[in-house]
Design goal:
InterPro entries: CFA/CMAS, CMAS, SAM-dependent_MTases_sf. By secondary structure, the chain is α/β, with parallel strands linked by helices. Helices cover 44% and strands 16% of the residues. The protein starts with a helix and ends in an 18-residue tail after the last helix.
Length: 438
């Protein structure tokens, strides 16, 4: 124990923030006037702290074995300093871990399991999410056109960027896979005039989007279905498809089949915009230092991240051609800090909302888990442990065009100017900062 405490003292002294540790027996280590203090009631959690297993320390905080005093931002700065190795270069993850992970992925990602996993997270409480998301409840990476943008405006900018990348046109058939609380679905219908279909596995989100469609009088050209992408019956293929924050739930073993299914839903020449979190490491099965296990247990059971290179491999094998890829990693770090700060500002109301559906003890555990998840994810995107890629792909139609389009197999433009040079009200510096959802 003495050796462990000496190691811990040395690590605390080297941190970029003042941190203290209160031991179960009452002894205190670390800085005076600490910005962050951890009160330990469990000796095994001390071992995790000393060895840099910060995900396991997080789990101990959630379970009430460690109490936290201090801000999330300072805690994350300390956590980064405590790591023994990069979590995307975990020495404990060998080739056979990847084999086992693929076998597990095959077993876990069935229709029934995927629906259960999605509802575990997204059906937690609409009122809880509404406390710290923007007014449209966009639960994915925002797009900050300008440094001074608020989160609400940056989310609208993201919705519009997706629509511009897809070159949405009035009357086109548009599919939103994993429609969330309906922000993209309604934005595309109201601003670009498409005939929009959304699908989701979340019962809460399905009800919410149906209510929005009715309230806005969009029943004729917007609809939402409670179904898996593998179950969707489309009378005819769609012109454009978006999948935002959804393919993280697909699983590495099912990724090829996912893109095959999306290709079948697209007409020849149609475009797919796949927006989702990707792994920062090429080979790691999940984040090391216990962080991947923390996410699996408390936040996203069944969630799996692939490196962008693996995603592009499966996409190409499915017969889709990547025509543009953009990494919005820094945008997601800023988005997550905005969510984290917003949740920190409403901790008591959040606790009260969660207690409406669970015991006080379970509500407190959930709140602690989400505080660590949001701030920890922000840290992960800042450090490059995770990334966020928007991948634009086309289903080639085989029409070898003549003239200036020689060599093309679809009508996709030869340059990307259209994505960023088009006037966009939401990205205008002179646009009003915060407006209620239309």
């Amino acid at each position: 124990m003495k050796h462990l405490l000496r190691i811990l003292e040395g690590r605390l002294e080297a941190l970029p923030v003042r941190m203290a540790v209160q031991l179960p027996a009452g002894q205190r280590l670390g800085a005076r006037n600490a910005a962050v203090t951890l009160w330990f009631r469990d000796r095994m959690a001390l071992v995790a702290l000393a060895t840099g297993e910060i995900g396991n320390v997080g789990a101990a905080i959630v379970e009430g074995k460690v109490a936290l005093e201090g801000s999330m931002r300072e805690l994350m700065a300390a956590a980064a300093g405590l790591l023994a190795t990069s979590p995307v270069q975990d020495p404990h993850q060998h080739w056979w871990h990847r084999v086992l992970a693929r076998a597990r992925s095959m077993a876990v990602h069935t229709l029934q399991h995927d629906a259960r996993h999605v509802r575990f997270h997204y059906d937690l409480s609409d009122d809880f999410y509404a406390l710290w998301l923007d007014p449209r409840r966009v639960y994915s990476c925002a797009y900050f056109c300008h440094p001074g943008m608020t989160l609400a405006r940056a989310q609208e900018a993201k919705l519009d960027l997706i629509c511009r990348k897809l070159r949405l046109q009035p009357g086109e058939r548009f599919l939103d896979i994993g429609a969330g609380w309906g922000a993209l679905l309604l934005w595309a219908a109201e601003h670009y005039g498409v005939d929009a279909t959304g699908i989701t596995l979340s019962r809460n989100q399905h009800v919410h989007v149906q209510q929005l469609i009715t309230a806005r009088g969009l029943q004729g050209r917007v609809r939402v279905q409670l179904c898996d992408y593998r179950e969707l019956q489309a009378g005819q293929p769609f012109d454009k498809v978006a999948s935002v924050g959804m393919f993280e739930h697909v699983g590495r073993a099912k990724m090829h089949a996912y893109f095959v299914a999306v290709r079948k839903l697209l007409r020849p020449g149609g475009l797919l915009l796949n927006h989702g979190i990707t792994a920062g490491g090429v080979d790691n099965v999940q984040l090391g230092a216990g962080m991947g296990d923390f996410i699996e247990q408390y936040i996203f059971p069944g969630g799996e991240l692939l490196h962008a290179s693996a995603v592009l491999h499966d996409l190409a094998q499915a017969g889709l051609e990547m025509v543009d890829t953009e990494n919005l990693r820094p945008h997601y770090a800023r988005t997550l800090w905005a969510w984290s700060d917003a949740l920190e500002a409403v901790l008591e109301p959040a606790r009260e909302v969660l207690q409406q559906q669970a015991t006080a003890e379970q509500a407190d555990k959930t709140l602690r888990a989400y505080r660590l998840y949001l701030a920890g994810s922000a840290l992960g995107f800042e450090r490059g442990w995770m990334a966020l890629h928007q991948i634009l792909a086309v289903r080639p139609d085989g029409d070898m065009r003549s003239g200036t389009m020689t060599g093309a197999q679809s009508a996709y433009p030869f340059t990307r100017d259209y994505m960023y040079t088009k006037d966009s009200a939401v990205c205008s510096i002179n646009s009003s900062p915060d407006q209620p959802p239309i």
